[in-house]
């Protein structure tokens, strides 16, 4: 990457690798968030000086006459160049110059930042909580070396002053204690007397982002050097991400290419990012000829709608007005409302009652032996499974005859059905429809199909120039079909999905999407994970594929590395809360992050609220949030149910709340196959939760789980030993 041979102003610059080559006359300027933060703290005179220096680097990364130095013992071998009282740390290759940090010229600072070991991971001094299960044997902690404890006895980079405490709105009652703290350790010693959130906020504020961490931040594109001034003055809110060449390709794919575009990829590979940049690119093209283009961006959960809206607003500014961000069900309801045809949705309980009635009222046919077999099939499936069969197979795929049902693929459905069984189910289905019609209500799938018919009848009433479907793995065919109908042309459809992250329904299949689209599109795969460390990504993957006979052999790439994730089992809720508090405290300290970077993901609202309270009782601010009231900017630990964490990300994540809960819930009637299907879905749900973590992950399971869901924590990937 930032490595090769450079020729500047006719001078051949030889890098340590000894190769040679030529370079661009002007480099593309990239920068890190840490650089922007450093710039934000400078006085106007220094800001101008730094901007002028950056301008020089754009034309020549190794300017003559300037004092510059390559830090050859530092990973990545960055350069540093002087600018007044400051120095800029940067690196370059034959196309890009990337600025990492600005540092005050003070030899001690350099020593601290450049000579310390690469980014420190979690401390190994976590509190001991004795309820943990025994550590398994094995050599899983060969990486323990990596977790070098940090020297916390050094003086703080700046003294704590009343001015700083007032600026951070620290309660007056804490001032005296905090003003006395001179080292990082002395700050930690305030624990118990000063709120943890305050201690972490101070650490975060006082310590600069270590160079190594800054280097791992995403590259942002600086188009014009003057944009730095506009950013500092608040005129410019954000910079664009430097996409990888493959991401760039899908984001800017020509609009008039034939057929829709599908982007696949594992967690954190930038699927949603590409979808957002695709919208930006399409808007640029569309607004040339159309004064008010209409773009629809849709995804499954309300939580994701909120966060996508915020990202689009940042990315598009005023042009965000052309983009509608909504769930498919909100759109369906609106269409039906306009047509005056809204029916209430059948609740699950009502659906159960109807399905039970339909089963009772549908006579069994054939010989007594055949009738017995039919009865046994129904018992094996159970009502919930039957209901899902109707909703996700028959209604969602709009199968309108028994013949079509006989031929239909039932992707992801574990209970096999022969022709006789399908014929019997079809009869029950017909009875179910009659009963449901009489109730005057409909299911979600029926509502979407209903909305689709309305769009077909008046195609211009609701049509979009572009439809982007993010996280399509959770949309059943009824939703995908409706969205396709809402788009003016098939080549304006853009779909992203990861089948492994399907957490609603019985699984996702690209076959269904292709069947809905009825035309061929382009499919592309993103492979590099930009979110999680390799350790977290691979641990989550090993958990997901636990027990699989032939795990998918896909090459995965990672940008970051860090400590191994932790897995623990605890006996009861008391120890669970202690363990969590310890983990969040220590992980936040290790990465010098605030509690706002932490998320706790739970199986249910009840578990989430209980643990949020338990953490608050331990002095850690924690708020339970539903998808509707998700606020990612709120301070303190965010506590969410696993389902609403989909598509989001947090530096520090714990999965907990399983102790004493009945998760995963199996209906009493569920057969073995139906249970297997539920388990597979819940394993994917856990996988989604784990892959939200960027840097640190802990999973807490019950000591006596009674379900195989909590198996699959392989000691090659999961750490059981570090004391938390
Ligand atoms: N080229 C890039 N350089 C740096 N960071 C990137 C790049 N592409 C994506 N990212 C970052 O990686 C993270 C994951 O991206 P994104 O959410 O788009 O992935 P995803 O594939 O949609 O994930 P998931 O399916 O798990 O929800 C985000 O923080 C995003 O900003």
Automatic annotation (TrEMBL):
Catalysed reaction, written as an equation: ATP + H2O = ADP + phosphate + H(+); Couples ATP hydrolysis with the unwinding of duplex DNA by translocating in the 3'-5' direction
Alphabetized UniProt keyword annotations: ATP-binding, Helicase, Hydrolase, Isomerase, Nucleotide-binding
EC number(s) reported in the record: 5.6.2.4
UniProt superkingdom: Bacteria
Signal sequence interval, chain numbering: none
GO terms assigned for molecular function: 3'-5' DNA helicase activity; ATP binding; DNA binding; hydrolase activity
GO biological process: recombinational repair
Domain UvrD-like helicase ATP-binding: 244-533
Ligand binding (ATP): 265-272
GO cellular component, one term: cytosol
Protein name: DNA 3'-5' helicase
Taxonomic lineage of the native organism: Bacteria, Bacillati, Chloroflexota, Ktedonobacteria, Ktedonobacterales
């Amino acid at each position: 990457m930032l490595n090769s041979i450079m020729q500047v102003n006719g001078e051949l610059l030889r890098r340590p690798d000894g190769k040679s080559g030529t370079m661009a006359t002007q480099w593309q300027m990239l920068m890190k968030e840490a650089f922007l933060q450093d710039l934000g703290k400078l006085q106007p005179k220094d800001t101008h000086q730094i901007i002028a220096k950056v301008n020089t680097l754009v034309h020549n990364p190794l300017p003559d006459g300037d004092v510059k130095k390559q830090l050859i013992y530092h990973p990545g071998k960055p350069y540093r160049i002087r600018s007044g009282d400051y120095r800029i740390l940067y690196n370059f290759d034959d196309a890009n110059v990337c600025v990492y940090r600005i540092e005050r010229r003070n030899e001690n600072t350099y020593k601290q930042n450049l000579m310390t070991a690469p980014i420190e991971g979690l401390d190994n001094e976590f509190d001991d909580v004795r309820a943990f299960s025994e550590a398994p044997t094995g050599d899983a902690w060969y990486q323990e070396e990596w977790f070098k404890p940090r020297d916390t006895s050094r003086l703080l980079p700046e003294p704590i002053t009343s001015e700083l405490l007032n600026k951070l709105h620290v309660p007056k009652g804490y001032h005296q204690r905090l003003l006395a703290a001179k080292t990082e350790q002395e700050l930690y010693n305030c624990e118990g007397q000063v709120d943890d959130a305050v201690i972490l906020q101070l650490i975060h504020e006082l310590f600069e982002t270590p160079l190594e961490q800054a280097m791992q931040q995403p590259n942002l594109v600086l188009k014009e050097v003057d944009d730095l001034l506009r950013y500092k003055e608040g005129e410019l809110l954000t910079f664009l991400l430097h996409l990888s060449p493959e991401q760039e390709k899908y984001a800017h794919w020509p609009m008039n290419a034939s057929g829709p575009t599908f982007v696949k990829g594992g967690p954190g590979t930038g699927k949603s990012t590409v979808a957002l940049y695709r919208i930006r690119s399409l808007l640029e093209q569309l607004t040339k000829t159309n004064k008010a283009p209409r773009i629809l961006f849709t995804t499954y959960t309300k939580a994701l709608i909120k966060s996508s809206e915020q990202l689009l607003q940042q990315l598009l500014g005023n042009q965000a007005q052309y983009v509608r961000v909504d769930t498919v069900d909100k759109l369906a309801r609106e269409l039906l409302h306009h047509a005056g045809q809204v029916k209430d949705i059948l609740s699950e309980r009502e659906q159960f009652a109807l399905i039970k009635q339909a089963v009772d009222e549908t006579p069994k046919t054939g010989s007594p032996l055949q009738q017995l077999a039919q009865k046994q099939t129904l018992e094996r499936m159970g009502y919930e499974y039957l209901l899902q069969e109707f909703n996700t197979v028959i209604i969602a795929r709009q199968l309108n005859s028994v013949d079509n049902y006989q031929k239909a693929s039932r992707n992801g459905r574990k209970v096999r059905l022969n022709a006789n069984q399908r014929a019997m189910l079809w009869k029950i289905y017909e009875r179910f429809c009659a009963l449901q019609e009489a109730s005057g209500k409909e299911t979600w799938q029926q509502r979407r199909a209903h909305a689709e018919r309305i769009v077909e009848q008046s195609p211009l009433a609701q049509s979009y120039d572009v439809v982007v479907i993010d996280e399509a793995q959770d949309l059943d065919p009824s939703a995908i079909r409706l969205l396709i109908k809402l788009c003016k042309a098939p080549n304006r459809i853009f779909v992203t999905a990861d089948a492994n992250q399907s957490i609603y329904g019985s699984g996702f299949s690209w076959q269904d999407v292709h069947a809905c689209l009825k035309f061929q599109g382009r499919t592309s795969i993103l492979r590099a994970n930009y979110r999680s460390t390799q350790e977290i990504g691979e641990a989550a993957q090993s958990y997901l594929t636990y027990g699989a006979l032939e795990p998918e052999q896909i090459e995965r790439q990672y940008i970051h590395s860090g400590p191994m994730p932790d897995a623990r089992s605890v006996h009861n809720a008391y120890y669970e809360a202690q363990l969590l508090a310890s983990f969040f405290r220590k992980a936040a300290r290790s990465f010098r992050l605030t509690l706002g970077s932490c998320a706790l993901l739970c199986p249910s609202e009840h578990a989430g609220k209980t643990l949020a309270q338990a953490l608050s009782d331990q002095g850690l601010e924690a708020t339970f949030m539903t998808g509707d009231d998700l606020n990612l900017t709120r301070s303190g630990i965010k506590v969410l149910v696993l389902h609403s964490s989909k598509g989001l990300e947090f530096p520090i994540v714990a999965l907990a709340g399983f102790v004493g809960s009945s998760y995963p819930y199996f209906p009493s009637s569920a057969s073995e196959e139906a249970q297997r299907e539920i388990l597979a879905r819940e394993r994917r749900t856990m996988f989604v939760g784990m892959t939200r973590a960027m840097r640190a992950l802990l999973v807490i399971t019950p000591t006596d789980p009674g379900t195989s869901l909590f198996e699959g924590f392989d000691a090659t990937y999961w750490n059981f030993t570090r004391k938390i």
